[in-house]
């Protein structure tokens, strides 16, 4: 595919603005740009076709099965898009006077109320723009809490080794020392390791439940109790909320603050990597520490993003929550779990689940024995799926399972899709025994073969340059 | 796998060679093999102090980062800047592509000879 | 009740039986029973699409959409070409995930590579990342990337956007680093104050261009002072202004960041927006966030991949310099389409018109007794006036469907973009004159 710059023809343009109807004014000489930026010069036809071409090499969840573990790729409803594009939401200035934006306030207040109920929290902020950003905000609540009590010795955050990389990175960004504790063989928190790590220097624990191998940690009440007893707080990573929303509430598990991924659990589109929204909820005693906007709200609070957050993403999430409602929310969670267990059992017998027990909304396949037998790795299997038009699952995560493939089908997949997916995995299992070489070189029918990532990292070419 | 006998090795897979009072440090063949293709190295500066058992830099492959752990306590007196342009030398010539030289040595970690290091690697792998 | 679960009750029962279970409760048997919610959620019942559409549209209808917007302060009402709304709405772009599987996502990767290139062109820098959350967080991330073991203090101009300052302050509070605010003088950063504050522990200085009050800063002089003190220079520039304004590169910036909302994103009550970050080759490996690089595939054809990932959280974990895991991909795509649709001439035209209309408005307002420009320096498209009886004036403008400037520090911060017609500006001036004449 040609780059847009390679399609640019000097002199071409679109006609978008009328001539200026007032006197021109120039910038001071010393602040004037020396040469115009080299942006593409194209007609609207060519722009349209360029992006159509790019589109044909993009795979979205609305286009096909996308079982990325830990990402909750569920169908993105079109009505959510329609609501977010209403001029009454899109064309509103964040600093308009309060009486002119009561509709925006209603969206935020309603979404807040519903999410508090779903998660068992007392308040929610929508300022964080992403999951990791929500984590940062949540841990900052913990930090402010201890600082406000003059409890300066609490410098450590406990993170299980099964956690997503953002967890320790976030803790470090908040100035905490990260204490990694190893998981029990079943992927759950090792209570003895936790007890050994707890002390009066513990600021808190970061945990997701169900955990990153898709298992509900039945010791959760004991875990949060132990942390509280040591004087620490418990932060819930809401990446896996889709398994339990409307069935179990993080607040009832003993968590003090949480983040939710509106772009996972609440079906707002991923957009190729954003925008999302990492709403953060907390119990009553932490409310005073929630972020606000200096310009919109005044006062002296922390702030993690400009203005109030990704408002149009909240509109989408609210539309979704209102659609599902009281019955639909737990229904989504229950069927997410049903679909995952169904798919896992259908694949089992070829690739083996890392844990042979009821899973939650996702499950992990452990391909280490398979690799020893056939020489075919999890990466090879993932790349081979591409030849079947199926998006690969999450690879090599969590770190506690070797040669891992993590699948999360979500509740919006039909049985036929799950049956077909299982069939493809079984086919690949057989192929690995018959023709491993073919799989080492997969994909064969995608737009490109395997890219040379080493070359990309050794000789970075990060922009196009005219020759 | 190559284990030159004239070198000493640390358990974190660095090798050490003494040139008079100066120690020359690099990573072993086992290390470069486990890392895969090295794409970048983060080096300390001349004059930095290093401590035995602590990280003095790191090596990046496409999918991972590994700390470089100093086998000795002392001061960095030379840095192999060629590696910034050609990190792949660590893969192709691990015993020729030295990383840092240390002088003023006041302490060290446990260092193994080639045979002991080879057994250690056999157990790890 | 609304539902996106395709399976029927019968199918669900069959699936349960196929895995040896009887009902849904069996799926949650590992959950301590006391923790299961034993009542329905206290939220309203689900709705059909028609009902939801009515309910949410009713909320939107409670908002007033002004036909003329003369308020900026970090969110700008620019003309968004139709194609710029249409392309990011394509289902593939909209519903794709992060392009970790390069073979299946060349379209997304290439679009990001194109975006990175355009940002480099706009800023004069060598390398751009794939975007961060917004301009305020970009400023905070830039401050973090400039710190090293010896230099930890960040300086920020008092004339930067209050939200950006507060976000930078929050990020500094996180890592236990200091943020010091350089005072203003006559609406711009006080250069002599800056020089005094550039102590050897300062890692970087951030200035917004044009600044929050609309004034154009002496960017080069500020940069020189910063470099003489051995610190790094970060500029946060308005991207529309950059079409005609001296680039941060030419002003000596080490890192160029900014709020990309003016590049085709609606005001949207504050978000989603777009933070751009670009730097020189020298500092490339310190840049946080995703970056797309060019390479070849197994057949030798050109291909794009997420690159330099060893900087990132999923590899470095607690040693990562930032926890950022995503970008604002769809917003970056929107910005790219905007820059392609407008082209270099279109963007320059938009910039010139913003400037012309703002100056026209200022001139007309300042002919009214009692209304004067607070700062006398050169400005781009925003300016502050003294304005008696601010409330009354804004109320009268509102009645004419015009959103007037933002009350700030006892004055009013006005903004005019290319969207403001001469008629609307004349009407604004007439209304202000009328109110103040009473």
Would you mind describing this structure in some detail?
The complex is a heterotrimer of chains A (467), B (125) and C (438). By secondary structure, chain A is an alpha/beta fold. Chain A has 2 domains: 78-322, Type I PLP-dependent aspartate aminotransferase-like (Major domain) (Aspartate Aminotransferase, domain 2), CATH 3.40.640.10; 331-445, Aspartate Aminotransferase, domain 1 (Alpha-Beta Complex), CATH 3.90.1150.10. Chain A contains 16 helices and 11 strands. In chain A, helix 2 (78-84) packs antiparallel against helix 11 (311-347) and helix 5 (131-148) crosses helix 6. In chain A, 61% of the residues are buried. Chain B has 4 helices and 10 strands; from the N terminus they run βββαβββββααββα. In chain B, the strands form 2 sheets. Chain B has a 7-stranded antiparallel sheet with strand order 5-8-9-3-2-1-10. In chain B, strands 4-6-7 form a 3-stranded antiparallel sheet. The longest helix of chain B has 11 residues, at 114-124. By secondary structure, chain C is α/β, with parallel strands linked by helices. Chain C folds into 3 domains: 9-61, no CATH class; 68-78 and 344-437, Aspartate Aminotransferase, domain 1, CATH 3.90.1150; 82-336, 3-Layer(aba) Sandwich (Aspartate Aminotransferase, domain 2). A 7-stranded mixed sheet of chain C has the order 2-10-9-8-7-3-4, with helices on both faces. In chain C, strand 3, helix 8 and strand 4 (179-182) form a beta-alpha-beta unit. The relative contact order of chain C is 0.14. The chains are: A alpha/beta (467), B alpha+beta (125), C alpha/beta (438).
């Amino acid at each position: 595919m040609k780059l847009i710059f390679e399609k640019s023809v000097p002199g071409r343009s679109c006609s978008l603005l009328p001539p200026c109807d007032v006197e021109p004014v120039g910038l001071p000489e010393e602040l004037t740009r020396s040469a115009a930026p080299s942006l593409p010069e194209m007609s609207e036809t060519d722009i349209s076709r360029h992006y159509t071409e790019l589109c044909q090499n993009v795979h979205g969840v609305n286009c096909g099965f996308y079982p990325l573990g830990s990402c909750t790729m569920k169908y993105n409803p079109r009505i959510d898009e329609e609501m977010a594009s209403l001029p009454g939401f899109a064309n509103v200035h964040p600093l308009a006077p309060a009486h002119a934006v009561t509709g925006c306030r209603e969206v935020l207040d309603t979404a807040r109320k519903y999410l508090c109920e779903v998660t068992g929290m007392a308040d929610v902020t929508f300022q964080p723009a992403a999951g990791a950003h929500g984590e940062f905000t949540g841990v900052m609540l913990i930090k402010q809490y201890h600082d406000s009590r003059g409890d300066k010795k609490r410098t450590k955050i406990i993170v299980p080794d099964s956690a997503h990389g953002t967890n320790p990175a976030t803790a470090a960004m908040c100035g905490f020392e990260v204490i990694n504790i190893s998981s029990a063989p079943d992927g759950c928190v090792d209570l003895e390791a936790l007890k050994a790590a707890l002390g009066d220097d513990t600021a808190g624990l970061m945990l997701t439940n169900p955990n990153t191998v898709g298992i509900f940690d039945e010791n959760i009440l004991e875990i949060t109790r132990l942390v509280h007893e040591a004087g620490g707080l418990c932060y819930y990573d809401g990446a896996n909320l889709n398994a339990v929303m409307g069935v179990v509430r993080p607040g009832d598990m003993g968590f003090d603050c949480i983040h939710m991924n509106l772009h996972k659990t609440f079906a707002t589109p991923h957009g190729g990597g954003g925008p999302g929204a990492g709403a953060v909820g907390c119990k009553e005693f932490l409310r005073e520490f929630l972020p606000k906007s200096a310009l919109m709200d005044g006062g002296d609070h922390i702030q993690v993003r400009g203005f109030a957050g990704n408002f149009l993403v909240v509109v989408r999430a609210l539309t979704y929550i209102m659609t599902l409602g009281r019955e639909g929310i737990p229904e989504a969670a229950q069927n997410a779990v049903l679909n995952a267990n169904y798919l896992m059992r259908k694949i089992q017998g070829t690739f083996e689940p890392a844990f042979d027990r009821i899973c939650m909304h996702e499950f992990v396949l452990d391909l280490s024995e398979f690799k020893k037998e056939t020489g075919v790795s999890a990466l090879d299997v993932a790349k081979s799926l591409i030849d079947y038009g199926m998006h690969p699952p999450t690879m090599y995560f969590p770190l506690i399972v070797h040669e891992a493939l993590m699948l999360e089908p979500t509740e919006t997949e039909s049985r036929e899709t799950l049956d077909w997916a299982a069939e493809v995995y079984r086919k690949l299992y057989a192929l690995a025994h018959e023709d491993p070489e073919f799989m080492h070189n997969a994909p064969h029918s995608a737009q490109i073969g395997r890219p040379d990532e080493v070359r990309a990292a050794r000789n970075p070419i990060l922009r196009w340059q005219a020759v | 796998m190559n284990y030159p006998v004239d070198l000493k090795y640390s358990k974190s897979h660095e090798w050490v060679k003494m040139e008079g009072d100066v120690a020359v440090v690099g990573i072993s063949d086992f290390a470069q093999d486990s890392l895969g293709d090295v794409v970048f190295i983060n080096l300390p500066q001349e004059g930095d102090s290093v401590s035995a058992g602590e990280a003095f830099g790191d090596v990046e492959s496409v999918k991972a980062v590994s700390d470089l752990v100093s086998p000795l306590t002392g001061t960095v007196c030379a840095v192999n800047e060629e590696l910034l342009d050609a990190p792949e030398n660590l893969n192709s010539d691990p015993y020729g592509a030295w990383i840092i030289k240390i002088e003023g040595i006041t302490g060290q970690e446990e260092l193994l000879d080639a045979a002991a290091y080879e057994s250690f690697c056999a157990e790890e792998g | 009740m609304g539902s996106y679960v395709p399976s029927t009750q019968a199918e669900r029962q069959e699936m349960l039986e196929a895995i040896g279970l009887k009902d849904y409760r069996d799926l949650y048997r590992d959950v301590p029973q006391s923790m299961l919610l034993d009542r329905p959620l206290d939220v309203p019942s689900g709705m059909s699409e028609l009902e939801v559409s009515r309910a949410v549209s009713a909320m939107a209808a409670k908002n007033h959409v002004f036909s003329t917007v003369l308020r900026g302060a970090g969110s700008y009402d620019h003309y968004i070409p139709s194609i710029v709304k249409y392309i990011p709405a394509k289902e593939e772009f909209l519903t794709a995930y992060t392009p970790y599987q390069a073979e299946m996502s060349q379209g997304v990767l290439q679009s990001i590579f194109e975006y990175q290139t355009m940002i480099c062109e706009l800023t004069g820098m060598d390398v751009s990342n794939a975007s961060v959350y917004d301009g305020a967080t970009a400023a905070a991330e830039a401050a973090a990337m400039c710190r090293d073991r010896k230099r930890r203090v960040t300086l920020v101009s008092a004339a930067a956007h209050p939200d950006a300052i507060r976000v930078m302050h929050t990020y500094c509070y996180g890592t236990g680093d200091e943020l010091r605010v350089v005072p203003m003088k006559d609406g711009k950063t006080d250069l002599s104050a800056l020089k005094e504050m550039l102590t050897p522990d300062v890692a970087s200085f951030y200035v917004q261009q044009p600044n929050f009050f609309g004034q154009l800063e002496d960017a080069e002089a500020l940069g020189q002072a910063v470099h003489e003190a051995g610190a790094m220079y970060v500029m946060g520039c308005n991207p529309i202004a950059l079409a005609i304004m001296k680039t941060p590169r030419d002003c000596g910036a080490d890192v160029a960041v900014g709020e990309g909302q003016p590049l085709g994103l609606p005001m949207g009550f504050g978000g989603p927006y777009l933070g751009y970050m670009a730097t020189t080759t020298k500092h490339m490996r310190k840049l946080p966030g995703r970056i797309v690089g060019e390479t070849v595939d197994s057949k030798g054809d050109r291909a794009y991949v997420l690159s330099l990932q060893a900087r990132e959280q999923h590899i470095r974990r607690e040693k990562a310099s930032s926890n950022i895991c995503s970008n604002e991909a769809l917003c970056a795509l929107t910005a790219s389409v905007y820059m392609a649709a407008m082209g270099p001439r279109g963007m320059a035209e938009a910039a010139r018109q913003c400037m012309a209309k703002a100056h026209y408005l200022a001139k007309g307002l300042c002919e009214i007794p009692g209304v004067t420009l607070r700062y006398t320096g050169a400005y781009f498209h925003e300016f502050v006036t003294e304005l008696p009886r601010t409330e009354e004036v804004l109320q009268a403008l509102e009645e004419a469907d015009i959103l007037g400037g933002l009350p700030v520090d006892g004055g009013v911060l006005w903004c005019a973009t290319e969207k403001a017609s001469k008629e609307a500006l004349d009407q604004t001036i007439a209304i202000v004159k009328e109110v103040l004449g009473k």
